[in-house]
Specification:
By secondary structure, the protein is of the alpha+beta class. It has a single domain, classed as Alpha-Beta Complex (endopeptidase fold (from Nostoc punctiforme)), CATH 3.90.1720. A six-stranded antiparallel β-sheet has the order 1-6-2-3-4-5.
Length: about 140
């Protein structure tokens, strides 16, 4: 099962890699929603797509949710995701600072490191998760 998830994740990252950063359409948190869609779920972030178009709009949504953890948790709940104590391949999570909501990112665990989307594309990062879910 983990091997199948790893293959699907590699295919997803390859397909997503060419998409250009566009807040509200292609960004660090919507990467997680796109992964959920890739896995066959309905869009857990359809209420966020197009709701912001720049960094200030994104930051205001994060602030309204009191951080990325709560924002992602709400989306994960919409598709029946479950909290995990430790990530497995394909898990989604929030990494970054536990105290600074402006330094938190949505990420997908590939079995070794976290995959994040930045302005320059998708890549791995080693980080301790703040919250993890199975979707």
């Amino acid at each position: 099962m983990a091997e199948l998830v790893a293959v699907r994740l590699a295919e997803f990252v390859a397909a997503q890699g060419s998409r250009m950063w566009e807040p509200g359409r292609v960004d660090c948190c919507l990467l997680l929603a796109d992964w959920a869609i890739w896995l066959g779920h309905s869009d857990p972030a359809n209420h966020l797509r197009g709701a912001y178009s720049d960094e200030n709009g994104f930051r205001s949504i994060i602030a309204a949710h009191q951080g990325v953890i709560q924002l992602v948790a709400g989306c994960v709940t919409r598709i029946g995701g479950k909290p995990l104590l430790a990530p497995g391949c394909g898990s989604v999570g929030v990494i970054g600072s536990p105290n600074n909501i402006d330094r938190q990112w949505g990420a997908i665990f590939d079995g070794v490191s976290w995959i994040v989307r930045g302005r320059d594309g998708i890549g791995p990062i080693v980080a301790r998760p703040l919250a993890v879910w199975e979707i």
